[in-house]
Design a protein that fits this description.
152 residues, two-stranded antiparallel sheet, elongated
Length: 152
């Protein structure tokens, strides 16, 4: 069977002469274009997954749960250290950064909880938001653990 790079000549499969000089550049271009058709994202364990996959949805849910647990832990840690502690300022800053980084994820979760329709634009916005939320949550968790591991 003839293909883009192969052709049959007298029963033998040979490289199509037109593509012989262009095989590597064409394959490289395809490899660069294909990810745009099926976006990939790196999840917490380092794997690259499709953004519309069950693995990405599970990752987003795990990040959302970690974020909520960290938000509660920050409240508990702030109560324990007091307002005058230098740790309080760092915790409050981390909390604010985490809330900003996780806003898109939180809005989507609220919309889903309330049974509201979620637009494609909102779904596309979640792709970069989940790793950003995960990073901010990890930073907050490290500060919480520094104040007291019992809060995590």
């Amino acid at each position: 069977m003839d293909g883009l790079f192969q052709q049959t000549v007298k029963g033998n499969s040979v490289l199509n002469p037109f593509f012989s000089d262009y095989k590597v550049p064409v394959l490289t271009a395809l490899l660069l274009v294909l990810p745009a058709c099926a976006p990939l994202v790196e999840i917490g364990d380092g794997r690259l997954v499709l953004t519309n996959s069950a693995a990405f949805r599970a990752y987003a849910e795990e990040v959302f749960r970690r974020h909520n647990m960290a938000a509660v832990a920050i409240i508990d840690a702030l109560d324990a250290v007091g307002d005058e502690s230098p740790d309080a300022a760092a915790l409050e800053q981390a909390d604010e950064e985490m809330l900003q980084a996780c806003e898109t994820l939180n809005l989507l979760a609220i919309a889903r909880r309330d049974g509201k329709k979620v637009s494609r634009r909102q779904l596309r916005a979640i792709v970069p938001a989940v790793p950003r939320c995960s990073s901010a949550t990890a930073h907050a968790e490290s500060l919480i653990e520094k104040v007291g591991p019992e809060f995590i």
